[in-house]
Amino acid sequence: MLKVKQLSHSFRNGLELTEVLHQIDFVVHKGDMVALLGSSGSGKSTLLNLMAGLMKPTEGSIYIAGQDIVTMSENQLAEFRRSHIGFIFQAYELIPNLTVRENIELPLVFQGIPQRKRKEKAMILLEQVGLPDKSEMFTSQLSGGQQQRVSIARSLITEPSVIFADEPTGNLDTKTEEEIISILKQLNRTMSTTFIIVTHEREVAEHTKRVLMLRDGHLEEEHVPEPVVGGTT
Ligand SMILES: Nc1ncnc2c1ncn2[C@@H]1O[C@H](COP(=O)(O)OP(=O)(O)OP(=O)(O)O)[C@@H](O)[C@H]1O
Ligand SMILES: [Mg+2]
Prior knowledge:
By secondary structure, this protein is α/β, with parallel strands linked by helices. The protein is about 35% helix and about 25% strand. The structure holds adenosine-5'-triphosphate (ATP) and magnesium ion.
């Protein structure tokens, strides 16, 4: 579903080239929920932005739903992103002068979907993230956790192949973080949506089936211990 091959990325600072990612290879299957861990500056956001097609890598390929996004033109990529990729940001990135429902509908406006159909889908998703009664409010009237739920609903409305989330709970307290993670887990189960979640928090990674760790430009698979069945012996 998502396949990253020999992906390297360097940034230029003046005359100096700094390599952030070095020949990374991995595969994520449909319906997987993956946590991407690594210390600050290890390249997590860089890797996520590359996979979401927000920038081009120095080298390598990124296949999503069978297509290499690296070789696409800007127009092809914009079109591909609109239908195949969802993104959840740490700071929500909602539009303040649109209502909750209008924010969620927005990706469908760009796809030319008629209003009635948009509204119907937005309301179903609002139900799933637990905010059916907030549809006509403005996003500035919501708490941070509620805003993040809206942004989750928005990322899902196009039924993308994969959703990338860059520290989606980074601005939230522990309790709200747990609520958001449990919503993501539930959506992953019920809709088989593929999630790749960047996080600083070990606790978030404990909820996902797979953990990938970025260290010194390399990506390492971490083995998640099997949950103990039957308690103490
Ligand atoms: N546009 C850019 N130009 C130059 N260097 C950059 C750019 N973006 C990121 N970097 C550098 O690449 C490295 C990785 O940055 P990145 O933002 O991917 O880290 P991160 O793992 O997401 O960190 P954090 O956990 O703090 O968000 C850092 O050293 C950063 O300074
Ligand atoms: Mg980051």
